[in-house]
Amino acid sequence: MQRIEDYRKEFIAYLEAHTKLEEPINLYEPINYILALGGKRLRPILTLMTADIFGSDYKKALDAALAVEVFHNFSLVHDDIMDDAPLRRGKATVHEKWDINTGILSGDAMLINAYQLFENYEGEVFRSLAKLFSKTAIEVCEGQQYDVDFETRDDVTIPEYLKMIEYKTAVLVGAAMKMGAIIANASLEGQNSIYEFGRNLGIAFQLQDDYLDAFGDPKTFGKQVGGDIIENKKTFLYLKAIEHSAPEQVKELEHLFSIQPADATEKIETVKSIFIDSGAAERTQEEISIYTEKAFVVLTKLEISEEKKLLLKKFGESLMQRKV
């Protein structure tokens, strides 16, 4: 087994080797830009790690890992356009640096590039990877639509919200891991179990991301802190605050999430205070722990060594302790 950092270095080297500035420049330069911005490389690392855990040479999973990372970044380019987000990983978003049309077209090309990478696999492995990828890609789109719909709805429930983040974020984490298992020819039970581990970890990861969006350090978070509040997104924090706040606080919160002032500084600080006073901030952290533990329970069913289970558990714990 490799160390997490070894997987990351191997993947980044592979990414850089496959990054070319082709013609037309205005199509490929934005693609290279977003892929070079860094990030945690969580999903491709999980693909490589899973292949290794199930006894395969993890290098066989590099194309699948790259496909997952390219698809993930495609979704970010389009999400940033939809959210009118100015920053991604501390740098200007693609549509800000170029323009909206460039962001749309370069994102489209990235989606196609992701599919092309699966062509490097043959037979049943190719079919299984392509089928999983297609299912996951449409679920991510469904999750994004739910997210957009929720911005204008006043009756979003917590189960609906959890379904949205499952589709928008968690299914891709699960798929990234299952791809590694498919490439390693793991049993169907092993493939499905590692998917469930990733899916639960992905929900916890997104809840943590929502928490950091409000309470993260701008210097380390890499995105605009308070972005969800500015966009009036009904996150888990918001829904829990509505559920547990006094009537006057509920009224204030609903009003704040119906406006978009030119200067949102006061709005952000007021909303964050309500999140804390209502206990929503604490309950969100509790929910993160619940889904992390659900992921760890799945590990007990996996027919892999205790050493490998411990590696997966430590990786999960590190994600939940992150500040970025």
TrEMBL record:
GO molecular function: metal ion binding; prenyltransferase activity
Pfam families documented for this protein: polyprenyl_synt (PF00348)
UniProt KW keywords: Magnesium, Metal-binding, Transferase
Reported cofactor(s): Mg(2+)
CDD domains linked to this entry: Trans_IPPS_HT
Domain of life: Bacteria
UniProt record, GO biological process: isoprenoid biosynthetic process
Classification via InterPro entries: Isoprenoid_synthase_dom_sf, Polyprenyl_synt, Polyprenyl_synt_CS
Family stated for the protein in its record: Belongs to the FPP/GGPP synthase family.
Name assigned to this protein: Geranylgeranyl diphosphate synthase, type II
Native organism: Cellulophaga baltica
